[in-house]
Each structure stands twice: as structure tokens, then as C-alpha cells.
């Protein structure tokens, strides 16, 4: 079976955070700078979106619901309701917390739920001009419903929080601060959600790789699929030895994230951007892509437990 890459949306300024909802067989994602949340249903090819009041870093379904989500908007985590229809109004049901209050120019970036439904989400430093980030002023946070839903700062001195993935077999949590140009592995306790013992397992600079590591997903073999912003690709990496197993070329330079989805979790959905960084990004840059024929399967995306 040959690999096929298909464009499924028109370009967005900064497409990010793809999440496959098994319950609805739909892909959710965001366009950060456009301040929009998106839904795409492969069986109907229906693509809908609506706007929020601020830059949105991620959208994650809430467990047991079909129209409720947690989103990260600017520096706030919000519990919202959206019926998934194009242009329909979003209701903010509750503010779950505000982070980086001492850093008003920061914003929330990537976020995911761990295998138990705890929210892990991070921030990034102020970006001005595009591509130039304030360093070491952001953090990674955890929100655990089993601990009264309080936000807990778990990693500090971050520049650009990205790349969240978990492997229960290896008791591992993988994390990326993109401005460190490397992927970090932590020991992970699924019962408590605690992380410990960080070590660098893959360094872009040492390997002479172009671009920076962005969003990350994981397959059932424990291999990481890492979107490379500025590298026009997704890298398949064995985290045990750092071997690059595959370089999946994407027809967009600014590849931002990836996740597995579809009925059999064997389709890789890839988001991209067309930001004004360096040179003009021409279509299909910024589009969301669907990749089939990879011969691997991913792990189910987890909804947030509130």
C-alpha cells in the first residue's frame, strides 16, 4: 500500500492541535492566529469552523459529551459548548483557570489529555517579530479533576511548549520545548500523573536537522511522529535509540502537528501554517492534510475528564 497525502482543508494561518474524536469520528483542530476552532468529518468531507474571542491554542472534547470542549484561549483555560456547526455561537460555560498572570504577553499553545483524562497544556513566550520568541518565560501546566481541578505548574523556564505524547508500556511522557530543538523523555506515573527524571532523547541541532520540533503523536509501536516546523516533514523517530525511521514529506514548509485518526486509527492527520516567517508561504501551505498507507496505527486520542 503506497503512501497518499491529500489536502482536506484550505490554508489556515496557523493550523494546530489536531485531535481525533472517536465518538464522533471527527477531527477537531484550531487556527491560532485566526482565532478559530474547526471540525472536519472525513466521511462527509464537511468542514466547519467558528470564532472565539482570542487566539486559541487547542481544542479538546470533554469526556462523555458531543458538544462540550476545553480550549486554551490567550492565557485562560475555558470550558465551552459548541454544536459543531459553521459559524455557530460558542457558549463559555466556565473559566477553568488563568495562567502566567505575571507574563501578560504569553499565550497558551499546545494541549492534550493524558491517558487518564488529565489536561496537560503549556504556554509560550511573546513572539515579536514572527519567529522571534521571548525565551524561558513560559511553563507547562496540569489540570487534574481528581485534585479539585486546580492548575499545577509542572515545568518552568519553557520558551515554546509543544509535543505531548504518552507511552503507558514504557511509563513515559514525551515533551518538547521547541526552542530547545530537542525532545525530552520523562518517567510517567499514570496513577498520579506525576512526571520525573527528564532526559534529552533527540536533538535537532546535534543531528544537523533543518526546522524545529513542533507537535508530536505516537503509534502503537511506541514510535514518535514529530511535525517539523520549517522542515516540510513529519519525522518518525524511535525514542529508544533516536533512530529516524521515516521522513514523511509534507507539501508545506511549516508543519505544525499530527495525530492518528479514522475508524482504524491508521490515518495520519497533519496540520500546517503559512505564517510570515522568513519567506512567503504559498498554497497548499497552511492546509490540513490526510495521510494514508503508512502501515501503522496510532493510539486513541483522549478526551478531558472534568
From TrEMBL:
TM stretches of this protein: none
GO terms for MF: calcium ion binding; enzyme regulator activity; gluconolactonase activity
KW Ligase (keyword) present: no
This protein's GO CC annotations: cytoplasm
SUPFAM superfamilies: Calcium-dependent phosphotriesterase
Keyword Plastid recorded: no
Binding note for cofactor: Binds 1 divalent metal cation per subunit.
Keywords: Calcium, Cytoplasm, Hydrolase, Metal-binding, Zinc
Cofactor dependency: Mg(2+); Mn(2+); Zn(2+); Ca(2+)
Protein name, UniProt field: Regucalcin
Lineage, broadest ranks: Eukaryota, Metazoa, Ecdysozoa, Arthropoda, Hexapoda
Gene: 101745878
Amino acid at each position: 500500500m503506497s503512501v497518499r497525502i491529500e489536502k482536506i482543508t484550505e490554508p489556515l494561518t496557523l493550523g494546530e492541535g489536531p485531535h481525533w474524536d472517536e465518538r464522533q469520528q471527527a477531527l477537531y483542530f484550531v487556527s491560532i492566529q485566526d482565532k478559530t476552532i474547526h471540525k472536519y468529518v472525513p466521511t462527509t468531507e464537511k468542514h466547519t469552523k467558528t470564532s472565539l474571542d482570542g487566539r486559541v491554542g487547542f481544542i479538546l472534547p470533554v469526556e462523555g459529551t458531543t458538544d462540550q470542549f476545553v480550549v486554551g484561549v490567550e492565557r485562560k483555560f475555558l470550558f465551552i459548548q459548541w454544536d459543531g456547526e459553521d459559524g455557530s455561537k460558542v457558549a463559555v460555560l466556565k473559566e477553568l483557570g488563568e495562567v502566567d498572570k505575571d507574563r501578560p504577553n504569553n499565550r497558551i499553545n499546545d494541549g492534550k489529555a493524558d491517558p487518564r483524562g488529565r489536561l496537560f497544556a503549556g504556554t509560550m513566550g511573546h513572539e515579536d517579530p514572527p519567529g522571534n520568541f521571548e525565551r524561558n518565560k513560559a511553563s507547562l501546566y496540569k489540570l487534574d479533576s481528581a485534585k479539585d481541578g486546580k492548575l499545577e505548574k509542572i515545568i518552568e523556564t519553557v520558551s515554546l511548549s509543544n509535543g505531548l505524547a504518552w507511552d503507558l508500556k514504557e511509563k513515559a511522557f514525551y515533551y518538547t520545548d521547541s526552542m530547545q530543538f530537542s525532545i525530552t523523555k520523562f518517567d510517567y506515573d499514570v496513577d498520579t500523573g506525576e512526571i520525573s527524571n527528564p532526559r534529552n532523547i533527540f536533538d535537532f541541532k546535534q543531528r544537523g536537522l533543518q526546522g524545529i520540533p513542533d507537535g508530536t503523536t505516537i503509534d502503537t509501536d511506541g514510535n514518535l511522529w514529530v511535525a517539523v516546523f520549517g522542515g516540510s516533514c513529519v519525522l518518525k523517530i524511535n525514542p529508544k535509540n533516536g533512530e529516524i525511521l521515516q521522513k514523511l514529506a509534507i507539501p508545506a514548509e511549516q508543519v505544525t502537528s499530527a495525530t492518528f485518526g479514522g475508524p482504524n486509527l491508521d490515518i495520519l492527520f497533519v496540520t500546517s501554517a503559512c505564517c510570515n516567517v522568513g519567506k512567503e508561504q504559498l498554497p497548499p501551505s497552511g492546509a490540513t492534510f490526510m495521510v494514508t498507507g503508512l502501515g501503522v496505527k496510532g493510539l486513541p486520542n483522549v478526551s478531558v475528564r472534568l
